[in-house]
Amino acid sequence: MTRVMDALPARKTLPRLDESLLTHLPPFSRLERRQIRTILDQATSRRYEVGVAVFSEGHPAERFYMLLDGYVRVVRITPTGEQVTALHIPAGQLLGIAKAIGRTTYPATAITATDSIALSWPTRLWDTFVSEYEGFATETYNTLGHRVGEMNTRIVELATQQVEQRVANALLRLINQTGRKVEGGIEIDFPITRQDLSELTATTLHTVSRLLSGWEKQGLVESRRKRIKVCDPHALVVLSQS
Amino acid sequence: MTRVMDALPARKTLPRLDESLLTHLPPFSRLERRQIRTILDQATSRRYEVGVAVFSEGHPAERFYMLLDGYVRVVRITPTGEQVTALHIPAGQLLGIAKAIGRTTYPATAITATDSIALSWPTRLWDTFVSEYEGFATETYNTLGHRVGEMNTRIVELATQQVEQRVANALLRLINQTGRKVEGGIEIDFPITRQDLSELTATTLHTVSRLLSGWEKQGLVESRRKRIKVCDPHALVVLSQS
DNA sequence: CTGCGATTTTGCTCTGGCGCAAACTCCTGA
DNA sequence: TCAGGAGTTTGCGCCAGAGCAAAATCGCAG
User: Is the same domain home to A120 and A14?
Assistant: First the structure.
């Protein structure tokens, strides 16, 4: 939508990627410099602006990705056009790893929540990565396990908690995963609208707005447009459990 | 609770398990007779009566299982004691495969929905299975992928659908996965209470009861105690989508 | 065959939170 | 600097479905 000018020439392979990009990331941390070099040489680097789909639900899983910078929302879109956010993925994690669970198409759509940078590889390299690179498979499945755990938690939350608790939980999770310490609290590190939060908690933007207004009056949070700062996490924890 | 007499001596290793038990099951179908023999010789076979926990959430994942006969419900229990059913697993599938996703404890509790029989192996054999037995890893991850897909679907349903649609969907899924064709319709192949259905759809047994009563009047379903027969699946599909 | 506990049905009330509508406010791009 | 649109707030009415209560059934154990 915005800044179409930039969107067009977005794809580009940088001249030479530095090894340090990957050496600290779990899936690659046990590899030798030489192996990382090979991996990087096979990678495509690309910048995605905010709001762009990295890949889309149902499409053939042609590539898998490592998010180097930014945040990505993984969403599913219902037949009636509603969006449901399944996960938030921070920089440093793999995404689009359909191949790892025996799928040939992406099970969900990945949309950037900020301008982002990701490496990607053709899916045909997946098996090589798994077999050649020590720790890659293990770390990948750990990530997967973590996500399964999160999905499970979401199900339980949706099934048993009130809206207020779900929103409180969502905020807590967001500041845990992607929070940045700032003057007077912890702020969510990327722009997030009431609408986004409502898609994350299965409610409406109106209800989210009401809740945030209420909490702001009580000094639990502060918010401006697309920005939310949590000032009293503990109070939210209490709310989320009652 | 019931029939404690039977519960006590339940564990037993049968003298010699027949290879045909496993040869048709996907995770093992590509193996040679000799390999299957080895696998069976390492297995413990056990019968579980209905309502018994095969393993419990949070406990160390000491064994993994292959359900040979029966049905198992995978549930999570909230701090307040409510149960939420995450999945139903039919005979022929692996369960308790925490190790596959890098976990050392079970993420949920597995409860038998009928009397059941399962083989199990100590988790330390997992890596051997994955590396030695062709197709085992692939099939396992396919299963996992399938379950992730189901979980995703549940999230979307919980987030966007009305209770009536969720219950209709749940019934349809149950008859698809575990339905048995009978006179005048398809019956769910194991005893299931209104309570069970409500835990599967995040509602109350009262609401489920009302819905079933209504549907029964319209001839869509027939039900007795712990038994539900779907007479007009197509009508349910329509309901589940509107 | 009987009694009892488990399961199911049904009525009534109450409310969380959605839907609708409208006003407001803050950025952004020109 | 200003206009317009995206994002946010707030009020109001309503209703799906939960909670509570009680009665009605069913089917198994003894």
Answer: yes
